[in-house]
Design a protein that fits this description.
2 domains; 5 helices
Length: 123
């Protein structure tokens, strides 16, 4: 399961819904999505497959659909995900076998507290 699928599971989609949605997205069948979402999917596909071909007009379409700040956020997230995928592929890192985005439940049912940045665990 990839990170996109993991996030869809955390959002509440069933395994069947995740499979159906990712199959449609992968096949380029975006007809059931809103016009704005289709603009974002086209941009993401273009940025992933042929990043050198992104033009000012492509960015303008994204900005028209989402506004300047949200478009910037989308471009940043798309570029970051592409970067991380390429790094993981270059090092041939395997995908996690469990959903890393689900809350960690302790045996007692107590929710695990996230580690604070910079804190050192006991060894």
């Amino acid at each position: 399961m990839g990170h996109s699928e993991m996030l869809l599971a955390v959002a509440g989609l069933t395994p069947e819904e995740i499979e159906e949605r990712t199959a449609r997205l992968t096949a380029g069948d975006w007809s059931d999505f809103s016009p704005d979402e289709r603009v974002a999917y086209r941009f993401a596909h273009q940025l992933t497959a042929e990043p050198w071909s992104v033009t000012d007009e492509d960015v303008r379409k994204l900005t028209d659909a989402f506004g300047e700040f949200r478009a910037l956020d989308l471009i940043w997230q798309m570029a970051w995900c592409n970067y991380m995928t390429r790094v993981a592929d270059a090092f041939q890192l395997p995908l996690e076998t469990t959903n890393v985005f689900e809350k960690d439940e302790r045996a007692s049912g107590e929710k695990a507290k996230p580690k604070r940045k910079g804190s050192k665990g006991k060894r």
